[in-house]
Structure formats: C-alpha cells, structure tokens
Fold this sequence. Notes:
Largest sheet: none
Distance between the termini: 68 Å
Structural class: mainly alpha
Shape: flat
Oligomer: single chain
Strand content: under 5%
Number of domains: 2
Number of strands: 0
Radius of gyration: 30 Å
Helix content: 55-70%
Amino acid sequence: MTGTTSHAHSSRAAAAPVVQHLPPRQPPLLRPSLPIGVAILSFLLGVAGLVLLLTGAIAFLHQYAGTTAFPDSLLISSSVDVYGAAILLVLGAAIIALARALWDQELWALYLMVTLLFAGLAYEFFTASITVLFLVLIVLFIYLLAVRHHFY
C-alpha cells in the first residue's frame, strides 16, 4: 500500500503545473533628445504666457482693489475690463500649458502648434500681408514638421 501511495505521490509531483513567470522587464523607451529650436520656442511661449497671465491677474486686482493698491502705471493695458482680464488669464494659462507640453515633447502639443502656425500663415496669406512675420511662421512651420520624430 505504501508503494502505491508513493507512486501516486510521485506522479502528482511530475504532473504539477508549471508556473510561468512574468516576461522580463523591457528597458524603458529611450526618450528622444529635445531639439534646441523646440526648447527655444517652448521657453518663449512660456514667457509670453506668463506675461499674459500676469497682465490678466493685475487687471483683475486693479478692477477689484482699485487704484490705491494697483496704480494705473502698473497696467500693461489700461483698457482691459473684467471679461478681458478673465480671457487673458485663461489664454495665459493655456499658453503656459502648451509651452510645458512642447518642452515635454508631447505629440498633441506639436499638432496644436502646427495647426496654430498654419492658421497664422493662412491669415497672413489671405490678408495679403506677407511680411517678415510670415517668413518667420513659415520657418517655424517647416522646422516643427522636420523635428516631428522627436515627439511621442
């Protein structure tokens, strides 16, 4: 009887399920390097967004705190009302977010920037105001298309 139990025990051990382990970890995807032009564009967009954000915040404070707390000399634009200040705040925050996403090489930021540049080019072209700004927009548009493989 002991022979059959040991034989049954050894056949169970041989038929034991084999546990598969998780696949080995893959090395993290290499992040492409940040092109210098994208870094400069991102920095300039961030500064412009910060200026718009501060302009909206100062205009809000000027509207609600009065001229004693924030004199008219601090205002960048003296003709901004409450709604204009709100628009400046939102626009400044959106531009800062776009600049941060460009710095992080996010693909949606590249698509948005190329779309905005194309809209600016179309506006400049159809209003027949082909100037230095038009040439700068063309160079930026072509540059961003050329470095698109750096975004993910």
